[in-house]
Write a structure and sequence with these properties.
five-stranded parallel beta sheet; 12 strands; alpha/beta; Rossmann fold; seven-stranded parallel beta sheet; 35% helix; 2 domains
Amino acid sequence: MAKFKVAMVDYDYATLDAFRGEVERLGGEFVHHRCKDIEEAIARFGDADGWLIQYLSPIGEKVFASCRKLKVVGRCGIGYDVIDVAAATRHKVVACNVPSYCEDEVSDHAMALMLSFIRKTVVYTNAVKAGKWDWKIGAPIPRLRGMTLGLMGFGKIPRTLAPKARAFGLNVITHDPFLKPEQAAREGVEMVDFNALLARSDFLSIHCPLNDQTRGMFNASAFARMKKTAVLINTARGGVINTADLARALDSGALAAACLDVMPQEPPDPADPLLRCANLVISPHVGWYSEGSIINLQTLIARYVSEVCLGRKPEAVVNPEVLAHVTLS
């Protein structure tokens, strides 16, 4: 008989084999369904010890009050803004994420977005397909070497991106209120304040979480302090950018371009003015993806959730303060 029950309450993965394998390896029962909303998830999986979620939200008071057996919620990814962490803590539910599984993929994608803009690959591809074979269509193209890449945040992904950028001859600066000077020196990056990050960056790549402090922080005021030749790159969370302000900045020439892998609403409304901007490069929140990263992600989050169900402390806990009220070995 299974020792615990873990429910995958929403997903768009082609296979759940890695989830199932890890839960069953640790003695649990794995169940799943693509629930369309919170109410369906509660009705189907209100008796589960652990939930695995991909996009479904909000995982908050209603879930925790209704699912009395729930010990842990695991978010299949780095970001966990779909979970009301304070509510989870009040109900003594452990919240987990996977902070380390796709550093190479996301940093590669940020670099690819940057290169696709600076080398005008999208412009040239569209032109050639339209029957225009003319290198001047993409002019002017500045030299990349010697430009400055600014990193908003300096966690694991930007720390992986920095040496890749330096290999292309870019200078790297960063703003992260939690970064210590000795860490920055060790990584070979220059620490700057937020205003300097905005003013000095030729490329500004966002790598911070979405929370009350960062929501909408890249807005009209921020764009006005950036170079008109600057390119904004976001592979973090869509809500960090005020996209209405960004659309106006791109249309007016206040910014040269934006390269986005995330949006506040996913998928975005087809009528979103931002999608009509010619100087936008966009991909469908795919920066995290490789075949290897999927297996890594699924295995790790299934392990963390199962460990809590077994009374063990997992490697990644979003709300460590809950451990004062939950007995985990």
